[in-house]
């Protein structure tokens, strides 16, 4: 620990001389002594006041510029003089502003969207040449406008399904919850909704994601070269930002689909000063159940509510409050009930200390919980489990020079885990109360990172993150475990820990770096390295993660997972950025990966750790990506060739085996074509290698039942057949009527257009009528063509 | 509690247009291994052990019997006997008497290999009664008679049970009928009517006039895990299926690390029985 701290402090000292100006910067508007002045402010959408994340500010005569941060704030330091400053953002009319700079200046700018005459669809919300110019690699952004035009399952626009069309991102099967990034597990993605972690991003067991597309403004997925600001998961960061709400006028957006309906309302609180948005969705399949006599006592629905408000308190301060509540409810009459969902709350305060120092302070709470039970009768019980975290952090952007931006900050997350508690709820219940010990932990972090332009050709972002995890007592008993790997181990050496008493501390240093070298104006080479540490783990022993899976902290037995990832890439744009292309190659090493003994019981198990196994993981691959940004036809082709394996003592005779989510080939093709100004058609095609699974080679009979067996107890020796699917969609825009604000559109889509029965899994069973006969059975989640229509409107 | 898991799997498939098809799969033929099925109970013997060999998964022929093996059973009181082969591959005891609290070691010498299996017979609660109760039709079940278990559970966590239900003399024996449970959630409580049947198992529910017999077995922890893994592997369907894996065994080759492993189980358990005719 002391060593880690010293290293971190040493690193701080290395960078700190550069930050000297931080303290010296006068609060007033005077220029700094070496004759430079700063222009800063916010970039916003003229129509609705939304911050333009990633918009650029450029002084063409000097060839320098800056990019707006995630709150739309920018800062550019220049020598005194007269300049033309150009503000640009894809899809918006650029604005050229002549400025006489003799002192520090605040200049907030509103950009108007490009005129309606362009019938083009824009695939990104970033600068046209960002692909080759930024140090970012392994990063994908999806613009909600694009996502809304792509074919969607049952017509429901879905953030998480859409990102699965990008290179390096896959899933174990349709309907499976979560996603896998570069050969990592579903729990290795940090999913943030307005900075609050989401612990289960699915509705209806994984069919739909928890994010309401009408409330989402921007989605960014980072799978390599992850900046030091983020940590806590091995594989990726999915940063979902909610809309801020229209600061100019009341706006209503809604839609009616086969599965659910949506409504979002946004309006100014005080025009130009503050606004809010409230968006909700609810599925209504259960309403039809009421008309079926057999089913009228059954319930199956979900809903979610997203809300956000912001208010500007003068030039320097802005406050945001956002919240999310999602719930799934299933009930079978009085026999069984299950509810689950996420809730989050985030409060943020942006403060501009001076024109070069921007700060954001965040306080948040996030909870995922589920309950299941039988409401009455002699088998009544109520089962609860949850994970809750409270978090506070401060992040700073210091625009030191046009060539250097320092990002630094610190934070802490306090976790409580309720792994499971069962209580009887009627006097005659046969069940007794069982409560597993609560668990508590605190995760601390501090980071410093520098975005540096060394020359027009070479730029870098490098930083260091110090993280530390304290596993703490809560009046709980902890054990150590003894015994051979592969079997239930025996708990030994029980020790009692009082609430708040430290059980185990894990400090870690996480270096991060990425580098961009421009070969010329339209191509560059990039390289990145990052070390990631993960302190909380999802205990999931099923093919697809289930909503009943429980998160566990790192404990005295479960060690934090580490990953080292190295990636290099070649990025090139063609035809004046009309096309962008990239090739990235990555390699990743992971340790302390968790697996399970055969037949492990992961629920309500006091000695869960006795059934866990730990080992190494490795993943490597190449990702190819070509995207067409302009013209009537836009879209992309993405292909990933990869491998993901692990080696766990106690599984597969201690030899390496492929992960269940290993995909050798993964191909996505997305095309969006503007047929007429009112008709847009789109199509996506997917191909992937089938998931790895274990097939038996022999059978035996016990108690008259046929049991499959595989010689040598090998793991994942086979693949289910390949998965491929074609989806189609068409969007029809209502006739634009300049006299009315009402705007509507119809979206028609066909999911699984050629009705392939894609195997989700293959399992083996004895024939129900003739036990001597054995058979292999394919489960296809969607075995048919699924057409749908939805109606969307806004005014 | 197993019922809940089943419920949950059904629930998650309900809203899907999911479908199941029997498909051809090409898999290699595994090498034959010794397969053991045997038991010793607290009821009077003889007790039987059957030895077969594993066969290729899609082979429909009866499993080959292992003849001429030498099986020795020894209990913790020092009694020891060699089993007789009463029919091909089927071996029987004649003197050893199973007793609650005793441990047993079965040694098998077959085809040049030697295997050992250890087990014990644990304490058991008594059945109060087994009853049949008429249940009306609901959204999750058909109407008919359901078989319920009544009895005290022994105080102290760590008891494991299997229930076998016989319908007009024939055991309900589809993969879904295998019922194993533990006392983690019900320790020391009176079990006042837990369903032992569901409609799928019998291809319909019980009717008036049906003869019903229930066997309650108190089993060891390891055998519970064996049966539980077996339940998982033979009903392994759905979104949240577990990765296929071999079911454990307590029959070990005395040469550690030998490729000639065995499968199956030699189990010690009690048997308590109650029966009724539905009126």
TrEMBL record, chain A:
Q: Superkingdom of this entry's organism? A: Bacteria
So which residues are the signal peptide here?
Answer: 1-23
Q: Which residues form the TonB-dependent receptor plug domain?
A: 157-232
Its subcellular locations are: Cell outer membrane
Q: Keyword Signal: yes or no?
A: yes
Q: Which UniProt keywords apply?
A: Cell outer membrane, Membrane, Receptor, Signal
Query: What is one term from the GO cellular component aspect held by the record?
Result: cell outer membrane
Q: What is this protein called?
A: TonB-dependent receptor
TrEMBL record, chain B:
What superkingdom heads the lineage? Bacteria
Q: Which organism is it from?
A: Hymenobacter elongatus
Protein keywords: Signal
Q: What is this protein called?
A: DUF4249 domain-containing protein
Q: Where is the signal peptide?
A: 1-17
């Amino acid at each position: 620990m002391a060593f880690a701290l010293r290293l971190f402090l040493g690193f701080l000292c290395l960078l700190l001389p550069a930050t000297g100006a931080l303290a010296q910067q006068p609060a007033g508007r005077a220029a700094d002594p070496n004759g430079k002045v700063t222009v800063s402010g916010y970039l916003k959408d003229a129509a609705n006041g939304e911050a333009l994340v990633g918009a650029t500010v450029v002084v063409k005569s000097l060839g320098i510029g800056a990019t707006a941060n995630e709150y739309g704030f920018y800062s550019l330091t220049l020598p005194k003089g007269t300049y033309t400053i150009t503000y640009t953002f894809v899809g918006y009319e650029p604005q050229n502003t002549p400025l006489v700079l003799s002192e520090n200046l605040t200049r907030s700018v509103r950009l108007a969207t490009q005129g309606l005459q362009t019938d083009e669809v824009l695939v990104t919300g970033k600068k046209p040449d960002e692909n080759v110019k930024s140090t970012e690699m392994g990063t994908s952004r999806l613009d909600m406008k694009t996502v809304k035009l792509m074919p969607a399952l049952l017509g429901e626009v879905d953030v998480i399904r859409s990102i699965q069309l990008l290179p390096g991102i896959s899933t174990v099967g349709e309907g499976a919850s979560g996603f896998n990034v570069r050969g990592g597990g579903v729990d290795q993605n940090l999913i943030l909704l307005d900075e609050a972690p989401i612990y289960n991003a699915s509705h209806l067991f994984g069919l739909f994601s928890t994010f309401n597309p009408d409330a989402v403004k921007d989605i960014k997925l980072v799978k390599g070269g992850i900046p030091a600001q983020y940590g806590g998961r091995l594989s990726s960061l999915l940063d979902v930002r909610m809309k801020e709400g229209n600061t100019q006028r009341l706006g209503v957006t809604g839609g009616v689909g086969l599965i659910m309906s949506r409504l979002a309302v946004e309006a100014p609180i005080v025009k130009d000063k503050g606004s809010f948005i409230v968006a909700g969705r609810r599925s209504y399949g259960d309403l039809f159940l009421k008309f079926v006599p057999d089913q009228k006592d059954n319930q199956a629905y979900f809903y979610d509510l997203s809300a956000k408000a912001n208010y500007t308190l003068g030039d320097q301060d802005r406050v945001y409050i956002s919240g999310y509540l999602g719930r799934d409810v299933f009930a079978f009459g009085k026999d069984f009930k299950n509810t689950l969902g996420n809730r989050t709350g985030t409060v943020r305060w942006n403060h501009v200390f001076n024109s070069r120092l921007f700060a954001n302070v965040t306080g948040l709470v996030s909870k995922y919980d589920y309950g299941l039970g039988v409401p009455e009768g002699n088998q009544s019980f109520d089962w609860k489990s949850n994970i809750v975290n409270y978090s506070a952090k401060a992040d700073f952007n210091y625009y030191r020079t046009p060539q250097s931006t320092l990002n630094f900050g610190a934070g802490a997350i306090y976790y409580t885990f309720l792994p499971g508690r069962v209580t009887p709820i009627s006097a005659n219940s046969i069940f007794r109360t069982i409560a597993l010990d609560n668990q508590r932990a605190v995760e601390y972090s501090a980071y410093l990172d520098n975005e540096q332009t060394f020359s027009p050709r070479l730029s870098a972002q490098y930083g260091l993150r110090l993280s530390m995890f304290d596993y703490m007592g809560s009046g709980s008993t902890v054990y150590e475990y003894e015994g051979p790997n592969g079997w239930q181990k025996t708990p030994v050496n029980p020790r009692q820990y009082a609430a708040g008493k430290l059980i185990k501390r894990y400090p870690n240093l996480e270096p991060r770096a990425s580098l961009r070298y421009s070969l010329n104006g339209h191509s560059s080479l990039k390289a990145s390295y990052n070390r990631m540490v993960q302190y909380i783990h999802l205990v999931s022993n099923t093919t697809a993660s289930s909503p009943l899976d429980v998160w566990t902290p790192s404990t005295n037995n479960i060690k934090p997972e580490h990953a080292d990832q190295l990636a290099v890439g070649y990025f090139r744009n063609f035809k004046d950025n009309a096309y962008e292309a990239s090739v990235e190659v990555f390699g990743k090493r992971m340790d302390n990966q968790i697996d399970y003994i055969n037949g492990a019981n992961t629920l309500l198990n006091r000695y869960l750790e006795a059934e866990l196994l730990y080992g190494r993981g490795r993943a490597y691959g190449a990702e190819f990506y070509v995207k067409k940004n302009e013209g009537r036809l836009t879209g992309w082709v993405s292909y990933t060739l990869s491998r993901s394996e692990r080696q766990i003592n106690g599984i597969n005779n201690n030899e390496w085996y492929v992960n269940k989510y290993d995909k050798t080939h993964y191909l996505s093709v997305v095309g969006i074509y503007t047929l007429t100004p009112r008709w847009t058609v789109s199509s996506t095609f997917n191909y992937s290698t089938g998931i790895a699974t274990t097939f038996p080679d022999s059978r035996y009979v016990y108690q008259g039942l046929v049991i499959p067996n595989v010689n040598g107890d090998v793991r994942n020796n086979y693949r289910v057949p390949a998965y491929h699917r074609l989806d189609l969609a068409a969007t029809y825009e209502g006739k634009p009527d300049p006299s009315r604000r009402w705007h509507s559109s119809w979206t028609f889509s066909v999911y699984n257009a050629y009705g392939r029965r894609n195997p989700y899994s293959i399992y083996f069973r004895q024939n129900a009528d003739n036990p001597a006969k054995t058979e292999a059975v394919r489960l296809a989640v969607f075995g048919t063509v699924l057409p749908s229509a939805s109606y969307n409107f806004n005014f | 509690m197993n019922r809940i898991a089943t419920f949950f799997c059904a629930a998650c498939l309900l809203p899907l247009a999911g479908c199941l098809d029997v498909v051809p799969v090409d898999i290699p033929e595994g090498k034959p291994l010794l397969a053991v099925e045997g038991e010793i109970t607290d009821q009077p013997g003889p007790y039987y052990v059957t030895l077969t060999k594993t066969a290729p998964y899609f082979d429909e022929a009866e499993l080959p019997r292992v003849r001429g093996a030498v099986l020795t059973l020894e209990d913790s009181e020092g009694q020891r006997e060699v089993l007789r082969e009463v029919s091909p591959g089927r071996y029987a005891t004649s003197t050893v008497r199973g007793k609650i609290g005793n441990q047993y070691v079965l040694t098998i010498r077959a085809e040049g290999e030697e295997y050992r299996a250890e087990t014990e017979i644990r304490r058991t609660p008594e059945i109060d009664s087994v009853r049949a109760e008429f249940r009306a039709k609901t959204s999750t079940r058909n109407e008919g008679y359901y078989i319920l278990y009544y009895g005290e559970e022994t105080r102290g966590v760590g008891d494991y049970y299997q229930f076998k239900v016989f319908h007009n003399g024939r055991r309900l024996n589809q993969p879904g009928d295998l019922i194993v449970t533990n006392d983690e959630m019900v320790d020391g409580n009176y079990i006042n009517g837990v369903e032992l049947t569901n409609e799928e198992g019998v291809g319909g529910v019980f009717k008036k006039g049906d003869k019903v017999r229930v066997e309650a077995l108190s089993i060891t922890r390891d055998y519970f895990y064996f049966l539980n893994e077996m339940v998982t592997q033979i009903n392994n369907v759905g979104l949240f299926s577990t990765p296929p894996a071999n079911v454990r065994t307590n029959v070990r080759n005395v040469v550690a690390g030998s490729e000639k492993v065995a499968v199956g189980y030699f189990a010690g358990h009690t048997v308590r029985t109650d029966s009724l005719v539905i009126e």
